[in-house]
Specification:
The chain is mainly alpha-helical. About 65% of the residues lie in helices and about 0% in strands. The longest helix is centred in the last third of the chain and has 34 residues, at about 290-325. Residues about 395-400 have low confidence and may be disordered.
Length: about 400
């Protein structure tokens, strides 16, 4: 018998995991409030006081609609993503290299007046491809050895196309793929060899950027794909470079890091209150890359901890969804996407509090953005689709013998 409750549940707009929906709601509310506050200086200069927040809010509303649409799609259809996504990502990333540079980087494409970063799409496509390979090339012992070769082949191509314009995005994406391979049961010998190569290469690159002469850095920046080498070197050398005497600190040399630290240092426990930030008028990119510093300044340490808590809950809730999936593909897909969102969030927060060098990674679902907000909402929709439509493992009930 079909009851009214079942009918309402069937036609509900918000199906799937309710905790994930609540996380999206809270992040959205925090985003709208803090972006409005952080962009007030820009609004004052342009004279369009409501334009930044109305634009951001409209993007978020469209993003939620995209989440609703995507989460209605049965998750089995996401297996089709790699077929068109890989060639499309390679094509778009290749074209982006020849577009007009913004801040010495060619990351953006414009289609029909709408700008977007192909790397945002490529990240999700690569995760879906890795999930498909891990689920299809496995046996009772775990992933087969050939799965590692296929994943590395696709990952290297995509990441190498991202590296010249956005090193941090490429490194973060590869880190997520590495964790997915660990979860997916790639043989330890292959993972161990890869980790050894990564450690040696990473240490060598860090040492070079830290200690190489400026003349060498400048001359090598003329090589193909290395035009951002001076930027990478300055960020590595500038991180943690604090003079012993506070009077010698140059407030104008690195205004992002400097004013982010001031914002955090003056927040107290409860903060200044929403809309009362002082450093938003001095902090570059206060509404995007460094919005977490404004969050802490206005909402205090408790507010900053609450935002971090939301991302941690997202990861653990996604892990629970994955553990209940009967099939491997949706489980790997939901873990990969949640890892990507949470890893990016943790890197952004680490940069804002001065633990990590500046990377230019926005805070997912909070920072001001257009297409990045839409794409992240789509990724949330995929996670919700898995929670809604993926076939669940049969529940095992233990019978107690008298």
């Amino acid at each position: 018998m079909v009851t009214p409750t079942k009918v309402l549940k069937k036609w509900s707009l918000f199906e799937g995991d309710k905790v994930i929906w609540m996380i999206l709601f809270f992040l959205g509310m925090i985003s709208i409030i803090e972006v409005y506050s952080a962009s007030s200086n820009m609004s004052y200069k342009t004279g369009y006081y409501w334009k930044p927040i109305l634009q951001h809010a409209s993007y978020f509303v469209v993003g939620v609609l995209a989440t609703i649409l995507v989460h209605k799609i049965p998750c089995r259809y996401f297996k089709l993503i790699p077929l068109a996504g890989i060639p499309l990502s390679v094509f778009l990333l290749g074209i982006a290299m020849f577009t007009t540079k913004v801040n010495n980087a060619s990351r953006w494409l414009e289609v029909g007046g709408i700008g977007f970063q192909p790397s945002e799409i490529a990240k999700g496509v690569l995760i879906a491809t890795t999930a498909m390979i891990l689920s299809s090339m496995r046996d009772e012992a775990g992933a087969q050895r050939r799965a590692f070769k296929w994943i590395m082949g696709v990952s290297v191509v995509i990441c190498l196309l991202i590296v010249p314009e956005n090193f941090s995005t490429a490194a973060m994406t590869f880190l997520v793929i590495l964790v997915m391979m660990f979860i997916g049961g790639i043989p330890w010998k292959q993972l161990g060899t890869l980790l050894g190569i990564i450690v040696i290469a990473g240490a060598s690159l860090f040492s070079f950027l830290r200690f190489a002469p400026d003349s060498t850095i400048e001359s090598m920046s003329d090589w193909p794909g290395l035009h951002r080498l001076p930027t990478w070197a300055s960020r590595v050398r500038g991180h943690g470079n604090i003079p012993e005497n506070a009077a010698d600190y140059d407030l104008t040399k690195n205004p992002q890091v400097t004013h982010a630290k001031i914002a955090i240092a003056t927040c107290n426990v409860i903060g200044r209150g929403p809309g009362n930030s002082v450093e938003r008028d001095f902090l570059p990119q206060s509404f995007s890359d460094f919005i977490y510093a404004i969050v802490i300044e206005e909402l205090g340490l408790g507010g900053g901890a609450f935002v971090m808590f939301l991302y941690i809950v997202l990861l653990f809730r996604s892990a629970r969804i994955a553990s209940r999936c009967e099939r491997n593909f949706p489980a790997f897909l939901v873990m990969g996407l949640s890892l990507m969102l949470v890893t990016q969030a943790m890197i952004n927060m680490a940069v804002a509090v001065g633990v990590f060098p500046v990377t230019g990674q926005p805070l997912p679902l909070i920072s001001k953005g257009g297409t990045s907000t839409l794409i992240n909402c789509v990724y949330m929709g995929v996670i919700l689709s898995v929670s809604r439509s993926a076939k669940k493992k049969p529940q095992v009930t233990e019978e107690t013998e008298d």
